[in-house]
Amino acid sequence: MSEHLATQPETPAPAFEPEEIDAEEVAxxxxxxxxxxxxxxGSVVVLRHICRFGPYRVRRVDVARxxxxxxxxxxxxxxxxxxxxxxxxNKEAWVIxx
Length: 98
Hints:
By secondary structure, this protein is α+β, with helices and mostly antiparallel strands. It is built from four helices and five strands, in the order ααβααββββ. The strands form two sheets. It has a three-stranded antiparallel β-sheet with strand order 1-5-2. A two-stranded antiparallel ribbon has the order 3-4. A hairpin with a 2-residue loop joins strand 3 (83-85) and strand 4. Helix 2 (23-39) packs across helix 4. The longest helix is centred in the N-terminal third of the chain and has 17 residues, at 23-39. The mean pLDDT is 85.
């Protein structure tokens, strides 16, 4: 058995490339995220919490960031850079305006 494995050529693992997300899908993710934010307990949300506890489709960092930027452009959230919450520095955070 080990002889068989030794003769097999090693193939590199395929690189993970996240799927592109179009503007229409970002708008849908932003809508879902806003519904989630309305139920969120705090007045400030950080990117880490969105990626961990937010709607499933929005949990990728790039999708969460683009969705929050869209909500910020519409005035529903306000970006707050470098905020310390519970002894942890969060570089990306937003104040919920609704």
